[in-house]
TrEMBL record:
Keywords: Chemotaxis, Cytoplasm, Hydrolase, Methyltransferase, Phosphoprotein, Transferase. GO terms for molecular function: methyltransferase activity; phosphorelay response regulator activity; protein-glutamate methylesterase activity; protein-glutamine glutaminase activity. The gene is cheB. It is found in: Cytoplasm. Its EC number is 3.1.1.61, 3.5.1.44. One of its GO terms (cellular component) is cytoplasm. The active site is at S162, H188, D284. It catalyses: [protein]-L-glutamate 5-O-methyl ester + H2O = L-glutamyl-[protein] + methanol + H(+); L-glutaminyl-[protein] + H2O = L-glutamyl-[protein] + NH4(+). Residues 150-342 form the CheB-type methylesterase domain. Belongs to the CheB family. This is Protein-glutamate methylesterase/protein-glutamine glutaminase. It comes from Shewanella insulae. The keyword Lipid biosynthesis does not apply.
Length: 348
């Protein structure tokens, strides 16, 4: 039985979240708190497996509470945030602090619309319960710029991630030098959050990070992030690669889907790609990574020890879709080693 503590200053939201989680036979809401101060004593009393945490609360906001929690008693947290620009910024900060995931709180008609999120909330609480939560991460060390990136335009780095991925992507991207070959990224994220995530990465990185608009020439020194609720793919026109957005059905229940991105690269570029599959629940990206490997790409998966959830990388490992399994913090340095060779691929 997964024990859950709900922390929210709204009695209505506490009641609705309790009702929603009661639909799952393996989840029990053991208590609820209206502010972090009450939550502290309830955590000691009930020892919950997962917290749901509101961001805006009296006495102490959710971010301040989460920061203290992750320093003193790291545990799985699912944030309850609003689908607004401000809500996206604060939620991304919460994920950077160690929250496992988030569920969006509707801005209006709360009683009727929040209940529509029941299945999503239950799944995210279940995922959080089996996640690997760690204390606050140390700063990311920069890696040395490559001296043999003259052919950077003939290389491509492709990254896929889900649960825990916003922080994992940040730890891969921010150490890289400005002359890094182009990067394309699919992270499972809602449309209201992807632009904020791209801007956050851009502010922390030497490379330029943008939300893909579709039709851009893929250039070195730039990372292109899939917009939320839209698939990102890559197409080749002549000698150049371009971004392409697809408003088609979800794949592996996700939109954007990592498999859509990886499969498109396998079809048009293949061998000079480095494919990286990071932490995430489910199996999205595993089949696409297998195709990248078959096309001659060098493929890397994040190891279980450093993953928040070893679902997607684990599924790729079962398919033997990887050439290497690496701890998250070793991936940037390994990227530089691969990019400083004559080819991005080492057929092990």
């Amino acid at each position: 039985m997964i024990k859950v503590l709900i922390i929210d200053d709204s009695p209505l939201v506490r009641q609705l979240l309790t009702h929603m989680l009661a639909q799952a036979p393996d989840i029990k809401v053991v208590a609820s708190a209206e502010d972090p101060y009450e939550a502290r004593s309830l955590i000691k009393q009930f020892n919950p497996d997962v917290l749901t945490l509101d961001i805006e609360m009296p006495k102490m906001d959710g971010i301040a509470f989460l920061r203290n929690l992750m320093k003193l008693r790291p545990m799985p947290v699912v944030m309850v945030s609003t689908l607004t620009h401000k809500g996206a910024e604060i939620t991304l900060e919460a994920l950077a602090l160690g929250a496992v995931d988030f569920i969006s709180k509707p801005k209006s008609d709360l009683t009727n619309t929040l209940l529509d999120y029941t299945d999503e909330l239950i799944q995210k609480v279940r995922t959080a319960a089996v996640s690997h939560v760690k204390a606050l991460s140390r700063p990311v060390a920069k890696v040395a710029a490559g001296d043999r990136f003259a052919n950077a335009q003939d290389r491509l780095i492709a990254i896929g991630a889900s649960t825990g991925g916003t922080e994992a992507i940040q730890r891969v991207i921010t150490p890289l030098p400005a002359n890094t070959p182009p990067i394309v990224i699919t992270q499972h994220i809602p449309a209201a959050f992807s632009l904020s995530f791209a801007k956050r990465l851009d502010s922390q990185s030497a490379i330029k990070v943008i939300e893909a608009q579709g039709g851009e020439i893929i250039e070195s020194g730039t990372a292109y992030l899939a917009p939320g609720d839209t698939h990102l793919s890559v197409e080749k026109r002549g000698a150049r690669l371009y971004t392409k957005l697809l408003d088609s059905d979800p794949v592996n229940r996700h939109k954007p889907a990592v498999d859509v991105l990886f499969n498109s690269i396998a079809d048009c570029f293949g061998g000079n790609t480095i494919g990286i599959l990071l932490t995430g629940m489910g199996k999205d990206g595993a089949q696409g990574l297998e195709r990248l490997k078959a096309a001659g790409s060098h493929t890397i998966i994040q190891d279980e020890a450093s993953s928040v959830v070893w679902g997607m990388p684990g599924a790729a490992a079962e398919l033997n879709a990887h050439r290497e399994i690496l701890h998250l913090d070793k991936i940037p340095t390994r990227l530089m080693e691969l990019l400083n060779t004559n080819k991005a691929v080492e057929n092990n």
